[in-house]
Amino acid sequence: MTLVLEGLREALRLLFAGDVEVWGVLALSLAVSTVATLIALAVGIPAGVALALARFPGRSLLIAAVNAGMGLPPVVVGLFVSIVLWRSGPLGWLEILYTPSALVIAQAVIASPIVTGITLAAVQNVPAPFRLQLVALGASRAQTVWVVLREARLPMLAAIMAGFGAVISEIGASMMVGGNIKGQTRTLTTAMVLETGRGNFEAAIALAILLLALVFAVNWVLTSIQQRRHGLGALLVLGATGLAGPGVAHGAELTFSVAISMKEAVEELGRRFVQSRPDVTLRYNLGSSGELQKQIEAGAPIDLFISAAERQMDELQHKGLIVRETRRVFARNVLVAVKPADSTIDLAKPADLLHPRVGKIVIGNPKTVPVGQYSEESLRALGLWDRLQPKLVFAENVRQALDYVARGEVDAGFVYSTDAALRRDRVKEAFRPPEDTYRPVTYPVAVVKDGKHRALAEAFIGLLTGRDGLSVLTRLGFQPPPAGAR
Questions:
Q1: pLDDT at residue 227 greater than cutoff 70
Q2: In this model, does residue 374 exceed pLDDT 60?
Q3: Tag placement on the chain: N or C end, fewer CB within 10 Å?
Q4: Among residues 454, 94, 99, which one has the least CA distance to residue 252?
Q5: How far apart are CA 125 and CA 122, in angstroms?
Q6: Domains of the chain
């Protein structure tokens, strides 16, 4: 109960303190879902009317497909929209994957069968004798459809409510086609997932409360329209309000995809960077290097990539997706094993992880997370990988692994030394795997080839690799890059 009250307090603080990021997420969520719902109305109402009034071969099959589509899983929609919009997909040339436009498309696909199905049912519920009387009075087909729609307008507003409710609250498709990029495609639902993964439950509950308040407000307006029997004019006013969205930004906006372990350093240097460039806005897309790599491969609008491993940068370079001559290695880190600060388990060396008291060990997912790849290399070299398999828990990035240890959900975990230093009050270093058991943990940076602001991105690399960058990185515990690294 205390956690919920803290979440409510945090929600009120975020709203009334004018938190720019929260208001931006709220506005984007409303704008995207409103546009998607309007598109669904434009598609679904004519389709529903046609299925209700027309008779043609295959009609029953189409109705069955619409009814099935009303329960279409959002993740399935996300999958197929991603394939179509992927850089190598049929519509990849549009370059809109990981943009709000992709969110709108996916949500419109989700809402359209819902609007179609409810419209079909509403029109079918208009008595057949009434429709026949209209024809007998000489009404044209268009006039008949219009009058029938007016008769069915109240239940059809339920279609709007259902369509909007389905898209504003979905998560699967938004994550897959939007990528949860801060300042660009982060919605209320994807932000909730992010904060929950980080262990920031108060922030997640606050976002949940804001989402519920938004859904209630929109449905209250629609219910008022329904009960007062207003026409569609009020609905169009609501649509225009939703389409207003966030204000138009001026100047250059750059998006940096940054390995999450480099978060604090890049954000601090970013603040210095924009001080002398007031017309520039920097947005940070934080995550595991493998996840960020896949987004760039799919065509995400990214200007600069900072990886926590050479592997991801190598693969992007091989595919011609970064500007090779801008690539630099600017920092190094080391792998450490940590345990909860109040743990009484004696962990002084890697072999101690085999002790029966050690139940769960968290590492990053080796498929996409560099810290997981380094951990696997080290444990394999030490002959422990196979023996520890039953104990391993996989995290989606290094900060999630750190949070698992800090919350005491696992007995030990592998992170970078700089991450462990951020939570000294909640975790303590147990031991450091021998550095000769895994590849050097190096951080490369490069300009993304399809970025819109190459000169500014290169200027940031200059800051990152220069004296100011070295000073910030050293203070945060990063080490200089290996000799000869470029």
A1: no
A2: yes
A3: N
A4: 454
A5: 5
A6: 2-244 (1.10.3720.10), 252-331+440-475 (3.40.190.10), 335-431 (3.40.190.10)
